[in-house]
Design a protein that fits this description.
Elements: E1 4-7, H1 14-25, E2 28-31, H2 32-40, H3 44-51, H4 53-67, E3 73-76, H5 87-94, E4 96-100, H6 104-114, H7 127-145, E5 150-152, H8 160-173
Parallel strand pairs: 1-3, 1-4, 2-3, 4-5
Length: 177
Amino acid sequence: MRPVFLIGYMCSGKTTLGRALAAALGCEFIDLDHYIEAQAGMKVREIFATQGESAFRKMEREALSQASSKVQAVIACGGGTPCAPGAMDLMNSLGVTVCLKPLPHRLLQRLMHGRHKRPLIANIQSEEEMMAFANAKMSEREPYYNQAQYQFDSSWLENKTQIDRTIQDFLAQIPIE
């Protein structure tokens, strides 16, 4: 099996789906943000706060390069990972790339609920501001996200039953070699 790279905007379900998919496939799961945190010895939000976004993006590129060498792995990439020069070419050449796209109302729910853990959106308070910010960022990233080999609806990951059903749908729709 070649690596499976899950890409998409923050809160699209990359970690939740990735962890469950790896378990179903019996392979390793790598969350790039957690990988970076382990390497740096600090949380992503601390890296952003103390070193800035550009330093984080550099760490992210290195982490992607290291994780890409794994075979039989599901890799949940950060929302901005595909935007780094050459990142999508690398992932497409080494594995299967899948862009996760939840329904807009589901994404908004997840963003609002998890904003305190995410440095780019931590200070956004209203749903209107959140959607405006998310839509602007997704528009910027769309050319990269559209380079994924597959698109997948990741709207239904809110409980074990939904996750199990989503994994079945994923495996039926996405050829994993």
